[in-house]
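User: I'm new to structure prediction. If I give you an amino acid sequence, what do you actually give back? Let's try with this one:
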Amino acid sequence: MGSARQAFQDEPDTDVLVDRLSDAWAWLEAHALLSRVPSQSEGLRQLSRDGRNLAKDPEGITRFEARQRLSGPLHPALEDTVRTNFDLRDYKTACFAPMKAVEVTVRDASGLDHSLVGVPLMRKAFQPRQNVKADRRRPSRGEAGGTARPAPR
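Assistant: Good question. You get back a string of structure tokens that encode the predicted 3D arrangement of the chain. For your 153 residues, that looks like this:
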């Protein structure tokens, strides 16, 4: 950062400016958007392949942020579908497929009719003390899913 300090020496807030530049540089390196130039000194960096692709793509920042959000583990039932569709840039399917999977799981768990979809299904499925499959007991008052007792005054 010595060369940055020298380049901005006439600025009134050089220290703050160089600190912020240093933070930004570290962030770029941490996200593999900069890489070492193999034929040059240790300190020389260039845009990595991912960095160049990000800079060229008009939606690069949006894709980068979305990929960051997907960087953690997903439920095994969603993992392949979501990541594959995302990588194929089929964002609608990457969003719709997990929502549909949740809907199917909720319908199966609640035993509700297939004619219910979306919000009506969720409202009916999550009504307390109702919609429990016939082979399960209904929760009693105060239990998870049961009707809560009023708090004592």
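You can read the tokens as a compact description of the fold. Here is one thing that stands out. The chain has a mean pLDDT of 82.
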